[in-house]
Amino acid sequence: MSTTRVLSIRNMTRVGLSCLALVILAIPALTQSNHSSYVFLLASGFLCAPGDSSTCPATAKGEQGDSYEMSGAGAFDAQNKSAKGAGTYAYKSPDGNVLETGVWLAEELVSFDSYGTANTLSRQGVAFGPATSGPKRSPMVSGPMPTGGLAVFQIRFLPTHGPSTVGVLQMNCILGDVPRERSVEGIQLTLQRNNSEYFEEAGGRVMFLAMRPEVSSSAPAQQQKTVPDTLEQRPN
Q1: pTM
Q2: Which of 166, 158, 171 is nearest to 19 (CA)?
Q3: Which of 14, 34, 89, 233 has its CA 20 to 30 Å from the CA of residue 104?
């Protein structure tokens, strides 16, 4: 491998990590006390199984056999259409040669169609959802909940060499009440350049996490404290 190529890969990785760090810092602001806010994972984190190429990266293929491999993370608000996200990508020829690498940025949420939350979910040893045994919980579940749906983002590709490119990225997560025509998990991609389309989902996992507001326990605690005080003041 040439020295120039090694430096390009290192630079791409450095930029990608910087973008992801900015996204992570922006997530609390996007999701604070908002019922319409979500975090998304695209072929990253606990979704990836070691040695299993069907989970990561997410791949979209074109009619000619060329493909885009992508991974990343971010957050979006389904109500005001704001989005922050970033990741890395590789564009490959039909025979698997890497033609382009770089980072991608989510600039806007075009639409989000939710399939509903999953009752329980376990992937790679990480469990989500309300417990099925033990003490009963409040009907209102706090914290992130795995949610299925189809999210459409306007994104920008920033290659290590050459000009940037705008595209539309669809992420489909098959949790909840999934329509039959959307039963395949993965991504689809349309590029503004030459209106290129990559509509074959060729692998990769996607997940949306609905951010629920935390349930405050201060009111019940205050009630428990005031009742004994009232009883103590009652005359004998």
Answers
A1: 0.73
A2: 158
A3: 34
Residues in the chain: 236
| Cα separation values, 98 from 2, 9, 68, 161, 214, Å | 14, 12, 10, 13, 45
Q: Is the pLDDT of residue 18 over 60?
A: no
CA distances from 30 to 77, 149, 181 (A): 7, 19, 31
DSSP code string of the chain: --HHHHHHHHHHHHHHHHHHHHHHHHHHHHHTT-TTEEEEEES-GGGPPTT-TTTSSEEEE-TTS-EEEEEEEEEEETTT--EEEEEEEEEE-TTS-EEEEEEEEEEEEEEEEEEEE-S-EEETTEEES--SSSS---SS--EEEEEEEEEEEEEEEEESSS--EEEEEEEEE--SS--GGG-S-EEEEEESGGG-EE-EE-S--EEEEEEEPPPP-HHHHHHHHHHHHHHHHS--
Tell me how crowded residue 42 is: count the other CB atoms within 10 A of its CB: 29
Task: Name the residue with tokens 């564009």.
Answer: 91
